[in-house]
């Protein structure tokens, strides 16, 4: 994944949640880049949530998963946030939350 600009005045941005999007190797790729890693070297996990505000704006508040765009353009448009309120790692990096 790659970092994308935070949403100004958005509560998750206020609490230092990182906004992310899928990373593509090439602009014409239909699927995000995939890297193979050694799972024995994973130290901790990060909780990542969809950018619900973005999905609500695009598809409406009553949208169901089957209505979401399942195309390369939809994947490029998808955004996510790290969840600093879940204590796996962000809270350790941002004490006091």
Walk me through the topology.
Blueprint: E1 2-3, H1 11-14, E2 19-21, E3 48-50, H2 52-59, H3 72-77, E4 79-82, H4 90-93
Antiparallel strand pairs: 1-2, 2-4, 3-4
What are the secondary-structure elements, in order, as H or E? Answer: EHEEHHEH
Low-pLDDT segments = none
Rounded average pLDDT: 83
Q: Helical residue percent? A: 10-25%
User: How would a crystallographer describe the biggest sheet?
Assistant: 4 strands, antiparallel
Number of strands: 4
Count of folded domains: 1
Rg of Cα set: 15 Å
Terminal Cα separation, in Å? 24 Å
Strand residue percentage? 5-15%
Strand order of the largest sheet: 1-2-4-3
Number of helices: 4
What structural class do you assign from the helix and strand content?
alpha+beta
Q: What overall form do the CA principal axes indicate? A: globular
Please describe what this structure looks like.
It is a single chain. This protein has one domain (2-25, 46-92). The protein is globular, with a radius of gyration of 15 Å. It has 97 residues and is of the alpha+beta class. It has a four-stranded antiparallel β-sheet with strand order 1-2-4-3. It has helices at residues 11-14, 52-59, 72-77, 90-93; strands at 2-3, 19-21, 48-50, 79-82. It contains four helices and four strands. The two termini are 24 Å apart. Helices cover 23% and strands 12% of the residues.
Brief account:
The protein is α+β, with helices and mostly antiparallel strands.
